[in-house]
Specification:
The structure is a single chain. With 329 residues, the chain is α/β, with parallel strands linked by helices. The chain has helices spanning 14-25, 58-65, 80-85, 87-96, 98-107, 142-155, 184-195, 212-224, 227-230, 244-255, 278-284, 292-304, 319-326, and strands spanning 5-9, 29-34, 48-52, 70-73, 112-116, 130-131, 163-169, 171-173, 197-201, 206-211, 233-237, 240-243, 261-265, 274-275. The protein has a domain at 5-180 and 208-241 and 274-292: NAD(P)-binding Rossmann-like Domain (Rossmann fold), CATH 3.40.50.720. Helix 1 (14-25) packs across helix 8, helix 7 (184-195) packs across helix 10 and helix 10 packs across helix 12 (292-304). The longest helix is centred in the middle third of the chain and has 14 residues, at 142-155.
Length: 329
């Protein structure tokens, strides 16, 4: 174990709710720093500290992170509709507060910074173009623009001995304790389970997809990886590229219910791209192990076990709806 104590901003979110238990299992000390706006809290654990606080509070963030060895930055307003609800709020959290994260690393004992970025920065690309990490960013939304803005800011900052890396995940899918049902595979699955109908917005858009279990494995891997291999690098993380229509057909197949119908409607969402994830394999030797069928099965199992409560209407599963409900400022 290279690092003993890991500090995670936004650690009570969708990814964090799956990642934190895994890191505790591995013997790490973990500090979760989160606003906890989705009402999810971890069970007490001797190696876990939970801090309810805002990354925009610079002094509090610096103080809370100062004794940690590694920092995983997950905190953000995490999709385009949520960002567009209040662009000023989105910028203050997703970009302005990133300067506080940088300061927390420089002023504390942080040796490794792992930043959750996004493949959305690539914008719209012809599906016959393999989108590698080196391709020019062409963000078409403010959410994507500030993700690449954070990358540029960090690259132009003298970080001393802090080694840092950017993670550009595909759209994540599968069950996690703090569940999101506003992501492509997840929303198609819950609609099929509850309504026996899958609403397809568009359908021809190509999207990269990633099982939550591989997302957790990748963050875990980056904590162990040699610093010189990852420093100042960006890595696309994806299992496969698949059209929305094909995703819907896959969901229907895994559920195994022929009565499930498709309802196709037009969409303004033009995002479509074919992400190339060869770099993570060639440079790091990391390969995804879990397919999309497995992710869908985890959602089906959770639904059947009663772990998903009012899956179509509960705002806790939908970032935009919960932000509206609590009027986050």
């Amino acid at each position: 174990m290279k690092f003993k104590k890991v500090f995670i901003t936004g650690g009570a979110g969708y990814v964090g709710s799956a990642l934190v238990p895994r890191l505790l299992e591995k013997g790490y000390e973990v500090v979760v720093y989160d606003l906890y706006i989705y009402d999810y809290k971890f069970k007490p654990h001797p190696n876990l500290t939970q801090i309810k606080a805002d990354i925009r509070d610079r002094e509090k963030l610096i103080e809370a992170a100062k004794a940690s060895d590694a920092l995983i930055h997950l905190a953000c307003i995490s999709n385009d509709p949520s960002f567009d609800l209040n662009p000023k709020l989105g910028k203050s959290i997703n970009f302005d507060a990133f300067k506080n994260v940088i300061d927390a690393c420089k002023q504390g004992a942080i040796k490794r910074l792992i930043v959750a970025s996004s493949t959305s920065q690539y914008g719209v690309k012809p599906v016959d173009v393999d989108v590698t990490e080196d391709i020019e960013a062409e963000p078409i939304t403010d959410y994507a623009k500030y993700k690449i803005g954070c990358e540029n800011l960090l690259q132009n900052t003298d970080m001393g001995d802090v080694k840092y890396v950017f993670v550009r995940p595909a759209t994540i899918c599968g069950y996690a304790p703090r569940l999101r049902l506003d992501l492509s595979v997840n929303i198609l699955t819950i609609n099929a389970l509850v309504n026996k109908k899958i609403k397809i917005f568009g359908g021809e858009q190509m999207r990269p997809a990633l099982n939550m279990k591989d997302m957790v494995r990748f963050y875990e891997f980056l904590l162990e990886a040699p610093g010189e291999k990852i420093h100042k690098q960006a890595f696309n993380v994806a299992y496969q590229n698949i059209k929305i229509r094909e995703l819907a057909e896959l969901v229907k197949k895994v559920i195994g219910d022929e009565s499930i119908e498709f309802e196709v409607t037009p969409t303004q969402d033009r995002r479509s791209y074919h992400v190339n994830a060869d770099k993570m394999k060639k440079v790091l030797g990391f390969k995804c192990k879990f397919d999309l069928q497995e992710a869908i099965r985890t959602l089906i199992d959770a639904y059947n076990e009663g772990l998903i409560v009012d899956g179509l209407n509960n705002p806790l599963y939908y970032n935009l709806n919960q932000m509206k409900k609590i009027s986050l400022k």
